[in-house]
Amino acid sequence: MSSLRSAPRISASTTFSDYAVTTATRLLGSAGWEAEQGTRALRRMLSPWGARRIGTRPGWHSDVCADGSPIEFSAAFSREGLRIRALVEALPDRSHPSSAQKAALALTRGLTRDYGAADDRLAEVSDLFLPDEDPTGFAMMHAADLAPTGDPEIKVYLNPNANAVMTGSERTRAALDRLGFTKAWAAVREYAGRGFDLDRIVYFGLDLTDGPESRVKVYFRHYDASAAELDARMEISLQHEAGFLGAFCRQLTGSDSEVRAQPLVSNLTFTAAGGDQPVSATLYVPLWLHSASDRTVRDRVSAVMREMGLPVGGYRTLLNQMARRPLSSGRGIHTYASARVQHGRARLTTYWSPELYDRYPPARYQRG
Fold it and tell me: pTM for the full model?
């Protein structure tokens, strides 16, 4: 329990940067990595808004975490090694989508300048996802690997439902067309076979890198769908190995039924090298509403990782660095877990909220 007691506390004067950099240092150090490179990248992602005090409730309710926190950490475990990432939403100066757009673009410019992120493809679609006319919702989220060496790999997540001028599916189709993936739309439409109301497009992801392996991702939120059903649909991907995801979801949620309290999320990933078919598909299982506490989630994730042959001790060590309270006294740290098996190699990622505002966050994204 000593690691929990020494976790960073949040006071009235704590800033977002205070919290995030301290937590990242703990995570990277517990992985046995030098923290300087990763925390430098994180500070850049938090500039300048990270200097603000966290406060007791969000001034801008971020799309990053269920409680409105604008920072999320994640860890990807595989037999090839560990990757630690941060996802942020740059906080706007005022609580309005147009101000959120300005903050997001400013952060993108800084990351492009400081780390050589390639924003050519983003420029091709910016007017679609950052409209001048009546914008709504979030503008853009930024993610980076907090690697101990080298420049971070930057990714952005855009809002397909950025205003009412176009639907999310129309905006996504137009973006794929501009980026040279016109024929990929057929795979997207087939994957959302029940229609875009039940299989709703919710994020559009771009790697800010050049090259044939640079990814374009289309994310879906699935209403009244089971993981086994999605597992079968994911065979549209070039590398999907079916038969795993139903049991994976059941073990994590403790239920055989459709995940109704909080809908499942998935993505299809396209690259120029892969052509018109998705090169991979990934399922994201929401965790925070399917157990009484993060201790229960920890035990479920640990059991799944043991079956997958992944390092349970490494996961638990990192979780202890995230937690600022006993795991039994809340259920908001674990947000999602994702998994995929390719060429017989398993990979699992856990996503963690800092719980800056609520350790019992409510359901989000209900159908309506």
Answer: 0.95
